[in-house]
Amino acid sequence: DEVGCGVLEDLALERPLVLSERGAVQVQVVVEAPAESGRRAVSVYSRPEETGTEAGWTRHASGTLASEPTVSAGAELTVWPPAGAEPVPVDDLYNGLADAGYGYGPAFQGLRAAWRRGEEVFAEVRLPDEATDRAGEFGIHPALFDAALHAAAFLPAGGEGGLPFSWSGVSLHASGAQSLRVRLSVAGDGGLCLNAADDTGAPVVSVDSLVVRPAPQGQLSSPGSGQDNLFSVDWIVKPESGGSLPRCVVAGAGGQDLAAMLGVAWHSELSECPEADLVLLPAGADADDGDVVAAVRSEVCRVLELVQQWLADERGDTRLVVVTRNAVSTGTGDRVEDVAGAGVQGLVRSARSEHPGRFGLVDVDGSAESWQCLPAVLNGTTDDEDGFELAVRAGQAYIPRLMPARTREVLAAPEGVEAWRLGMAGQGSVDDLVIVPSPEAEVPLEAGQVRIGVRAAGLNFRDVLNMYPGEVPVLGAEVAGVVLETGPGVTGFVPGDRVMGMAVGGFGPVVMADARLIAPIPRGWSFAQAAGVPVVFLTALYGLRETGRL
């Protein structure tokens, strides 16, 4: 409208505009001066708003504008539903798209009905009620326009998916539509031809050709963002502090050795401590030969009582610093050895968040140099108004900081090999995942067995905690997928059935399962939804029948 051009003659999409969960994006549309033919070049750029003018602009699309919009041939949509067209079920469309990796939110699930007539597909799309009040703000609402293309999945050559790559002959004939009648067909160049009208059959938008292509994985991240939305706690070297050495005393049972090492006074009770900057309280328990659960409960309850006692004390300028030993992991290879101390660490972190400035945390390893440097480590900690948390390893102090997660090497599935699964290098952690052979996935089926092509696998507490004694367990007990083959005696399933159930080694492309442990996926469920149900269902069933005797 601004430049008198009613047709987007062509537009090539060079890079997707991926929006981050945080921060705004500046978008700039540049329209050049008209050429002798009257056509104008147009380009679309973006850059993150928070970087201001320092960041360069990224071009996402370029094309040509022209005048004189025309209605494409075959745009007659006054008769509705179209004569001679057969209805097509649409209930499972969005679940199928989700299984293929295309997730649409509620506002974009606008396809209401579809029909097929030869090489044509007709569809009815509508905005959800909560979006209709904004329809007038757009030439055509983005969610409505996007939904108009979803019926392409029902074209004879449709269903491969992809992202828009190039547009040709796009004309907007009316604005503010809340619903559309849509006709889709295959254009001469293999793209999609679209005509859309309102509820009276009056033209709204037409597209001579839309070509879609798969998007390279690398283009689905915003420029320079890396893993901007994923953070982890990293322990970094504590900067040198110029503050004064605090006045310290040690309190509580078992604090005599720490007091002697630091050369400060020790008091058995918190209430007996004189005025000081820091009161150090040793915590933790050695439960190697006893009941670990009882030791953790006992020590956490003991420290909780002392924390409550401390909060009732009126000495608000004095900070209680809980000192543990090997109760925190600062990275790979630094294992937690004192489980009771780890519980105390969690308790005091909660107390710190509720009462800023009253508590500190120090975790020390077993090296002599770490304990000897403790006075220097505490230097300047009283300047931190909210409290502090430190870990001392081999004489070096570290502090925790929330940092963007470092990009890790992606585990690549072996090419051309179906008999593999995801496994663990060791017990007690899911950080070190590996690809391991799974020859059992290819052996001939026995009676009552089913071979399943896995589409989704459930991550269960057993996989995450990995605390069961014995050998390292096989990951993935819940699966959802498609039946590939049935063994002798299996009558309830045939190849192609969508099923869910229990199996062994579900984090792989193919598994074998007992036919008695699988069931059809209910209509309307995605594979991801189905993969999370079996253990929940069996837990409830066991509780009701076996435990409750109902």
TrEMBL record:
Stored SUPFAM superfamilies: GroES-like (SSF50129), NAD(P)-binding Rossmann-fold domains (SSF51735)
Top-rank lineage group of the source organism: Bacteria
Region (N-terminal hotdog fold): 1-72
Pfam families: ADH_N (PF08240), PKS_DH_N (PF21089), PS-DH (PF14765), SpnB_Rossmann (PF22953)
Keyword annotations: Membrane, Multifunctional enzyme, Transferase, Transmembrane, Transmembrane helix
Region (C-terminal hotdog fold): 85-221
Any single GO BP term: fatty acid biosynthetic process
Protein known as: PKS/mFAS DH domain-containing protein
